[in-house]
Specification:
The chain is an alpha/beta fold. Helix content is about 30%, strand content about 25%.
Length: about 475
């Protein structure tokens, strides 16, 4: 019996030394890092298997999170909406449909803020109109975007990021993430290149002034005048190789509505006017495109897609049945969950969007780990959340990181990057088999590469 007690005490001592060794090595890394001579970092580590803290360094200080804020959005969405939740886009009509296939009423396109609605889905809507027997709409094609307010950018988003596809114009009707994919293929020297756009639409115009294989024409440019909300796609310069660009369109809902009308007319469905309005309760529903939450979640986490994160954020209120929701409604939903489930005081933090794009967001590593702990404690949240996180050296935004040693395939974590900020939060398994939750936020860093190397080193220490 004494021998057994001695062995147990010995192992307990080893585990204590292991924990102390991790803390000592992390302290050494923090104190010796050249990166931290000109920048800040906050670190929090918790052993989920043993239920005890492992390490903390400035873990309660507030930092801009960048895209690790998607951890908070995703955990809240899984807990509040559930994995079975769907993002629905619906078709309905009012009035009557006569024997000559004429709809004496309006055709309604009802937006539900599906961030992954693509051209194939739009073709399904067109097919549904045909299957319903509608060949002429005597009334109007009406877009119902009443589920959300009309503010298409988040609070604190940088105005000059509007030119980039990662900052879309938010709307209940999103097609191809509000973007047009432009492909340019060179032809003969001195000729115009071939240009292909997806999806095709009469909502935008193409101004192709590029010339093939003439170097003095300068670098090839594919752009639009985003400063003046113009949707003409300008292609200029020297086209010497196949290339492409994803361009966001001003007014996502107009892009969706006009492209839908364009496709209806291509199928010889008579249509005269477009409008915005609210579908009445007596409308007849004829079709629905449903997007499972899992698909949106994986895009938000593995690809760090801002649009998908914002959709999860807004649906915290939409899913509760609220009409004409705003960012403030979603913020309140996050705050309620934080206060009553995470047991943290929302007034100590500032969360204004779902993606982490806003410059007004401020959270702490300690808060992030609290969400990771909550997910771990709730199987219905943890399983889909853990599966959707990027895996080190394998996929998502961690595909090209930590491809060697004991962290390869071991770290499951969300990255975050904006100018001056680099962050990483998720899970790693130690050599003893314990699952650790961690959060690292580097602040005031001009070199994202150096910050990522620092974070990778932290993960290596945790995994040893």
């Amino acid at each position: 019996m004494r021998k057994l007690s001695f062995i147990l005490l010995l192992w307990a001592g080893i585990f204590r030394l292991y924990g102390q060794d991790i803390a000592a090595r992390l302290d050494s890394l923090v104190s010796s890092s050249a990166l931290l001579q000109t920048s800040e970092v906050g670190i929090s580590v918790f052993n989920l298997t043993k239920g005890e803290p492992v390490y903390a360094y400035q873990d309660r200080k507030l930092y801009r999170p960048a895209s690790v804020e998607k951890v908070i959005t995703s955990v809240t969405a899984l807990a509040r909406l559930g994995e079975a939740y769907t993002f629905d886009t619906r078709l309905a009509y009012t009035g009557t449909l006569d024997a000559d296939s004429v709809l004496h009423g309006d055709l309604f396109l009802i937006g539900g803020f599906d961030p992954e609605f693509m051209e194939d889905d739009l073709d399904d809507l067109v097919g549904a109109v045909l299957r319903a027997g509608i060949r002429t709409v005597e009334g109007k094609l009406v877009a119902d975007v009443s589920v959300m307010d009309s503010v298409y950018w988040g609070s604190g988003w940088a105005w000059d990021d509007a030119q980039y596809s990662f900052q879309p114009y938010l709307s209940p009707l999103m097609l191809n993430r509000g973007c047009v994919s432009v492909s340019v293929k060179p032809t003969q020297r001195g000729h115009r290149p071939e240009v292909e756009t997806v999806p095709e639409s009469d909502y935008y115009a193409i101004d192709n002034r590029a010339v093939c294989h003439i170097p003095h024409c300068g670098r090839l440019r594919i752009e639009r005048d985003w400063m003046h909300n113009d949707n003409t796609i300008h292609i200029t310069g020297n086209a010497n190789r196949a290339c492409g660009q994803l361009l966001s369109m001003f007014s996502s809902q107009d892009f969706f509505l006009h492209t839908f009308a364009y496709k209806l007319r291509q199928k010889h469905i008579g249509l005269d006017s477009l409008a915005y309005g609210v579908c009445p309760e007596e409308g007849t529903y004829i079709y629905k495109v449903s997007r499972p939450l899992e698909e949106v979640l994986k895009q938000a986490l593995k690809k760090s897609d801002n649009l998908c994160a914002e959709a999860l954020f807004y649906h915290l209120s939409i899913g509760a049945g609220k009409k004409n929701v705003s960012a403030e409604d979603a913020q309140k939903a996050v705050e309620r969950f934080m206060r009553y489930q995470i047991k943290k005081e929302p007034d100590n933090y500032n969360i204004v969007d779902g993606s982490g794009v806003s410059m007004y967001n401020y959270i702490s590593p300690d808060l992030l780990v609290a969400y990771l702990k909550y997910a771990y404690a709730h199987k219905e949240v943890f399983e889909p959340f853990y599966e959707a996180l990027p895996i080190a050296g394998v996929d998502g935004t961690l595909r090209y990181r930590m491809r060697k040693s004991n962290v390869f395939r071991n770290v499951h974590a969300k990255t975050g990057t904006v100018k001056g900020v680099s962050s990483l939060a998720g899970y790693v398994r130690s050599a003893e088999g314990d699952l650790l939750a961690f959060a690292i936020i580097n602040q005031n860093v001009l070199s994202g590469r150096k910050a990522r190397l620092f974070q990778d080193k932290v993960c290596e220490i945790l995994a040893q």
